[in-house]
């Protein structure tokens, strides 16, 4: 039907067929006769046997590719249809993209290639960088068919993502059914329900990496509780094994929240592994009897309310123990006496000291750890402000810091450090830090 050296659209000369399917799909390596650049041409036959859904996906792929601009995604070049004379009585549609010289990871597997841990980490990192770009578009672009045959290891040793034939260029909406696509073993369960989300691409990446490591398709590996069993077949650092198990969790909510979080966890090697032991709370920690911190916890949630610093804040300001209280006593006394002689100045000083003291002493902190996220809010005079939300997978450490006689608990993440506030005693800080570490499974 199509032959080597045949010219399509008076512009593209076919060089070699790269692949075909029984469903009327063909892929060719061709040359742009005007620029002498190599291109890839995907062809779809508009035959009676073709399902309309195939044409819909083919057109969607062309539309989405026109909007993409990433160095690791082959650029869109052209889209056209061929008449029946050229296609031997059947109309064809053609999509043209840049050609990426190299081999697909599937081809390398078939050649007996085995991948080192360093290579796996590099493939994971570069693929995640592509997914971050796709998922952060508006609307997000979901690939939905990530697998070894759709990842090219280029001659420049970089990873390229190809074949957007299953792409979904819209956010998943509850109650809306999308085209069911994907490849068994790589596509997660929710995708076969027509409910693909960004984390679906993450699962497919994890399954792909497991295939590269074991040389066995994930569909052929043993499963337990719907989880791919591969630990006994690989020799990797524990953090990478945990990372692979988390990214291939059956439940969407147990995977990494998004590609960016997955990448940070991969690079840092620190995150809350889904394979850690369930929180048993058997190592009971005892709250100091004088503490006014309110703490509630269960398997899925940890809530902490840290009251305002109170008089202890005065000492913290001057870092002088009781001297802080004495200084504030003098300021209040002076402003009171001065107001009797110079009301305006005295009232100003009185107001300044009062407001400053309220700011220091009147801020309450509320912390809520959910299964995947941390939410931190502060309350002053009954009003909430400064709401912050972070992913638990970004947390590296819970630590204690001291200012004079005041202790506070802090959270260190990959990029930032956050102070939970309050004016705690040493015993309170040790207890609170221990409770948070234990709930997050950071101990040991």
UniProtKB/TrEMBL annotation:
Matching SMART domains: S_TKc (SM00220)
Example GO molecular function: protein serine/threonine kinase activity
Domain of life: Bacteria
Keyword Nucleotide-binding tagged: yes
Annotated ranges, domain Protein kinase: 12-267
Pfam families in the record: Pkinase
Entry-linked InterPro entries: Kinase-like_dom_sf, Prot_kinase_dom, Ser/Thr_kinase_AS
Keywords noted in UniProt: ATP-binding, Kinase, Membrane, Nucleotide-binding, Serine/threonine-protein kinase, Transferase, Transmembrane, Transmembrane helix
Descriptive protein name: Serine/threonine protein kinase
């Amino acid at each position: 039907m199509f032959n080597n050296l045949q010219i399509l659209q008076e512009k593209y000369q076919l060089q070699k067929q790269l692949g075909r399917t029984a469903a009327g799909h063909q892929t060719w390596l061709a040359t742009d006769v005007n620029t002498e650049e190599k291109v890839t041409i995907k062809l779809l036959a508009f035959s009676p046997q073709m399902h309309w859904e195939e044409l819909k996906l083919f057109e969607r792929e062309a539309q989405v590719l026109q909007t993409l601009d990433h160095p690791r995604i082959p650029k869109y070049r052209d889209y056209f249809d061929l008449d029946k004379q050229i296609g031997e009585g059947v109309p064809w549609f053609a999509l043209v993209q840049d050609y990426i010289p190299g081999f697909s990871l599937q081809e390398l597997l078939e050649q007996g290639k085995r991948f080192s841990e360093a290579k796996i980490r590099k493939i994971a990192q570069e693929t995640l960088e592509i997914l971050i770009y796709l998922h952060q578009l508006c609307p997000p672009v979901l690939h939905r068919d990530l697998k070894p045959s759709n990842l090219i290891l280029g001659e420049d040793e970089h990873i390229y993502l190809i074949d957007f034939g299953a792409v979904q260029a819209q956010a998943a909406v509850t109650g809306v059914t999308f085209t069911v696509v994907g490849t068994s073993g790589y596509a997660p369960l929710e995708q076969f329900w027509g409910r693909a989300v960004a984390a679906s691409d993450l699962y497919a990446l994890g399954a792909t990496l497991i295939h590269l490591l074991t040389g066995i398709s994930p569909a052929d590996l043993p499963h337990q509780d719907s989880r791919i069993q591969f630990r006994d077949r690989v020799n990797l650092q524990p953090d990478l094994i945990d990372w692979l198990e988390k990214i291939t969790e059956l439940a969407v909510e147990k995977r990494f929240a998004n590609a960016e979080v997955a990448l940070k966890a991969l690079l840092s090697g620190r995150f809350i592994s889904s394979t850690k032991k369930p929180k048993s709370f058997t190592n009971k920690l005892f709250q100091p009897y004088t503490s006014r911190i309110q703490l509630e916890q269960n398997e899925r949630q940890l809530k902490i309310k840290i009251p305002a610093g109170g008089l202890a804040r005065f000492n913290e300001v001057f870092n002088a123990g009781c001297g802080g209280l004495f200084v504030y006593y003098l300021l209040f006394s002076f402003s009171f006496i001065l107001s009797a002689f110079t009301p305006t100045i005295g009232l100003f000083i009185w107001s300044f000291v009062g407001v400053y003291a309220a700011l220091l002493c009147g801020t309450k902190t509320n912390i809520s750890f959910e299964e995947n996220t941390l939410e931190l809010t502060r309350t002053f005079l009954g009003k909430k402000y400064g709401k912050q939300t972070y992913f638990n997978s970004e947390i590296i450490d819970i630590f204690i810091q001291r200012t004079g006689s005041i202790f506070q608990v802090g959270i260190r993440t990959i990029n930032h450090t956050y102070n939970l506030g309050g004016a705690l005693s040493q015993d309170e800080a040790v207890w609170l830090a221990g409770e948070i570490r234990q709930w997050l499974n950071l101990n040991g």
